[in-house]
Design goal:
- The chain has 341 residues and is α+β, with helices and mostly antiparallel strands.
- The chain has a five-stranded antiparallel beta sheet, with helices on both faces. Strands 4-5-6 form a three-stranded antiparallel beta sheet.
Length: 341
């Protein structure tokens, strides 16, 4: 285990390197930070930190920079989450409060996160599998053609056209709409199949075919993987960090284009527990193209359960406390909006 003093030296190196982009030397550390020891002692501490793999010498300069392992220790032990200022919190609230529907909420959230962190923002649409039914609407378009509208508690709206095997009267349609909603409103998607399985039997024989067709369309809608949707913003921010990527920025951009890769990153984060924050640093990201980046992600949703993830991708040399604070604050506001919508 590192001593408290060496942890302080590591913290100072991370803070200075993130702030200045320059490798950090012992002289600069003792001048800038109240470490209470001589430059010689700091040099000795830096030698130990380097030996242990927490810092490295990028080239022949006298300075050192944090390694992935050094950033990991900083995030786990040394970095608090930096709370946002009142004006920042108000700005988030005002910006997100203007959203008119779920697409607008997601779009605004991406723009906001990219602006606040000056990194690449990634927001996943609320997952259907973790949602509950708010309302099912059935509309008649023609004697044997219906439109099914499914509205979730997170504001998602799914629409499907249904061609029935025979004409379906308005009275039967109103009856089906009422019975369907009485059974499924407020229930989780996973419970719906069981709740509606005996519904066709309660209708007249001539209507059962149409009822079964409506139900099978509803159930297909519930199990579709429509949650594999995410929105990315702020990719241009990466160009400000060109020198933070060892060879070229291209592998990072290619990885960001592959939504499957990003969903996996956010998905893996999900397994570490609902709303919890996950920070993956450098080589902890399984995808090779993201080995020079860090991913900070957190779940959002109403109540204690995450319905999806949001986060940012940036170089490993990032302001972790500030980024973590911004990601967490935005997630909370999005959760509140979904709860109130």
């Amino acid at each position: 285990m590192l001593s408290e003093r060496r942890l302080e030296v590591l913290r100072a190196i991370v803070q200075d390197y993130v702030g200045t982009e320059e490798p950090v030397g012992s002289k600069a550390l003792t001048e800038r930070h109240q470490l209470g020891v001589s430059p010689a002692t700091v040099r000795n501490d830096m030698a130990v930190l380097e030996e242990e793999g927490f810092i490295a010498q990028p080239h022949t300069s006298a300075g050192r920079i944090p390694t992935d392992k050094g950033y990991r220790l900083f995030v786990d032990k040394l970095a608090g989450v930096k709370p946002l200022s009142s004006p920042e919190r108000r700005a988030i609230q005002n910006f997100l409060d203007g959203a008119v529907d779920l697409d607008d909420v997601v779009g605004r959230t991406v723009r906001l996160l990219a602006q606040l962190t000056r990194q690449v923002a990634v927001v996943q649409y609320p997952s259907l599998t973790r949602s509950t039914v708010r309302h099912v609407e059935l509309l008649s378009l023609a004697p044997a053609r219906l439109m099914l509208v499914l509205i979730t508690d997170t504001g998602r709206v799914e629409q499907r056209m249904i061609d029935c095997p025979a004409p379906f009267g308005d009275t039967s349609l109103a009856d089906l709409r009422a019975r369907l909603n009485s059974r499924v409103v407020g229930r989780r998607f996973a419970d719906v199949p069981q709740l509606v399985q005996d519904l066709p039997d309660s209708f007249e024989p001539e209507d059962r075919g149409a009822v079964s067709t409506v139900l099978s369309t509803l159930l297909e809608t519930l199990v579709e993987e429509t949650e594999e949707r995410l929105v990315i913003g702020g990719t241009a921010n990466l160009t400000r960090f060109g020198h933070d990527f060892p060879l070229t920025i291209r592998p990072v951009l290619e990885a960001l284009e592959e939504h499957v890769v990003l969903l996996k990153l956010l998905g893996e984060a999900k397994e570490s527990g609902g709303m919890g924050m996950t920070v993956r640093i450098g080589h902890e990201n399984a995808h090779e193209g993201l080995n020079s980046t860090s991913v900070v992600s957190v779940g959002y949703g109403s109540g204690d359960e995450a319905v999806a993830k949001l986060g940012v991708v940036g170089p490993t040399r990032m302001d972790y406390p500030g980024t973590m604070g911004a990601v967490r604050a935005v997630a909370r506001y999005v959760g509140q909006i979904l709860a109130e919508s």
